[in-house]
Each structure stands twice: as C-alpha cells, then as structure tokens.
Amino acid sequence: MMSDIELPIFPLPLVLFPGVRQPLHVFEPRYRDLLRDCLAGDRRFGLSLLIPTPGTAGVPQPGDVGCTARIQSHHPLPDGRSNLLTVGENRYVLQRLVERDCAYLVGRVQFLHDETAEAEFAGITRRVREQFSRIISSFDDTGGMPGVSVHPPEDPEGLSFAVSAALDLGLATKAQLLRLTSTATRLERLHTLLQPLVRDAAKRTTVRKAAKRNGRRHAPTCSGE
Q1: How far apart are CA 194 and CA 152, in angstroms?
Q2: In the prediction, which pLDDT does 56 show?
Q3: Domain count, the chain
Q4: Mean pLDDT, the chain, as a whole number?
Q5: For residues 173 and 197, is the Cβ–Cβ distance under 8 A?
Q6: Does residue 204 have a pLDDT over 90?
Q7: What Å distances lie between residue 157 and 68, 163, 223, CA to CA?
Q8: Are 167 and 128 in the same domain?
C-alpha cells in the first residue's frame, strides 16, 4: 500500500476513475508548466474534482476526492497547447494544499483503497453487468454507446469503476462512488442507480424496433416493368 504523497493538482469539473481513459486539452500557462514537469518526472498528476462554490475561489478543498492520472500520450500543438490521453490510477482524498515555487497547485493526498475482505460478489456483479449491457445496447443497432466499451472489466472493482465512469450519473454522485472504499457497497449503489436507466433503455429499444418495423412496412417496392 502506498503512503501519502504530494502531487501536482489539476482541478477540473469531472470525476476520473481508476482504469478509465480520459483525454484532456491543456491550454492555460500554469497547466502547461504542470505538464512539462510531469513529462520530466513520472508522468503523473492528481485530477481533482472541482465544483466551484461561493468562497472556494475555484480551488479544491481539503476532503475533496480525486484520482491520479498517468499521461499515456502527449501531442503538442504549434501554439503551445497540448492534447493528452491519460488513464486513471489511484483514488485519493486531498489532505491539504502545500506551498511550492510553481504556478500550479500542489497537494498532499491520502490514497483510498477498497477493503479486501468483501462479501460474495457474484450476484451483485452479474446484476450490474446485465443492467449496464442493457443500457448501452439500447442506443443503436451496433450494440453500444459511442466511446463506451461493451466489454467492461471482469473483476468486480474494475466493473464498478467502469460503469460509474461511463454513465451520466452527475458529478456529485460520481464523487460519492469514487469515495466509497467497499466494492460491494459501490456495486449495490450502482444497482439502485441503474434501475431507472434500465427502464429508459427498454423504452428506447421498443421505440427503435417499432421504427424499424414501420420502415419495412412502408418501404417502396420496385416493379419489374
């Protein structure tokens, strides 16, 4: 288990989950500096959820959750901006911001780990996987949503992170899921959250099938004359 460490902090209004890829566009000078320093080091920074509220001045607060992001690819642009592809690695809680001689934020973070002693996963894992499959397959005839894998990880923890990341559950809800340290609890919470989405998926599937039948019914015919 890793000890607490200090990380460059990139605050954004999004929640990154372990094992999930996240493209980023870097344009502000201070984050160009952060990127330069990360590329010269271990290519890792902390992506902290930022939901601006009165009095926070757009700065993450102690107790806020985040996830380390590892830079997988870096594509610099001619004007100094950059496009990145990152992948989430380790969840953390921000302990405090620390003073450093740099333009970007640096924070001391405490890592979060799911409990190793869990209840039986098979039932709830199967239910969440089935719910997720129904939802993503309801959007089109190719069997999935654009940019979302139809084959999430097999392990329960990885599945819980992939499903949490893929669906539009709201930032506050995603932050709660990120903070949980029990895979079983996260899966149970997802099972509840996905129930209305499954009902919507069933309606979409019914409408799409009806539209296809109507299209065939009214398709023009060609005469042999």
Answers
A1: 15
A2: 56
A3: 2
A4: 85
A5: no
A6: no
A7: 17, 10, 59
A8: yes
